[in-house]
Amino acid sequence: GENVEQHPSTLSVQEGDSAVIKCTYSDSASNYFPWYKQELGKGPQLIIDIRSNVGEKKDQRIAVTLNKTAKHFSLHITETQPEDSAVYFCAASMGYGGSQGNLIFGKGTKLSVKP
Amino acid sequence: KAGVTQTPRYLIKTRGQQVTLSCSPISGHRSVSWYQQTPGQGLQFLFEYFSETQRNKGNFPGRFSGRQFSNSRSEMNVSTLELGDSALYLCASSGIIQETQYFGPGTRLLVL
Predict the structure, then answer these.
(1) Which residue among A36, A45, A101 sits closest to B98, beta carbon to beta carbon?
(2) pLDDT digit string, tens, across residues B16-58
(3) Burial tier of A6 (Cβ tally within 10 Å: 0-12, 13-18, 19+)
């Protein structure tokens, strides 16, 4: 089955710096890759997602890139702020728009942004 | 629109008991998925329901079961609780099957 690996497990940056989190997936049939942010005591919140027919997507300070050949995708956060501190999860799914869409998650990255 | 709601938010049970958790999806959403989150195993898929039918199931024992009602609300049940069932149980809803999933706040279950 699908396996998603996420690195690094922890990341500490200074406010204003950029943060990059990387994920690799094993099954080339995966076609949907969302990123979630989880704050303490809350459920995961979708921050950005990308489908396999797109190489890059950007939303203000957040961007995601996808390399289907290498089977990896990355989250980029620019101009980090203390409120960006949280645990970030990448996920992969084989079924966007189809019949098998359960999300396979990476283990998470704890991002700390120091003021 | 109101988000996904889950009740109860916290629950303490003892080994051998059973528990039922409830999830109300975003209005208009018909697909509900359940996930278990633990520090050791991370986020793992339990099952997915669409129009009252289970469409997908993860690798969990038969003690874990669920159902969906005609109004799309869903419940999951865990019977004969074990210590290892202590976890945050998350529900996610999507508009049609296999679209973007939006998560609720979760139910934190502690088994003593």
Answers:
(1) A101
(2) 999 999 999 999 998 999 999 999 999 999 999 988 999 889 9
(3) buried
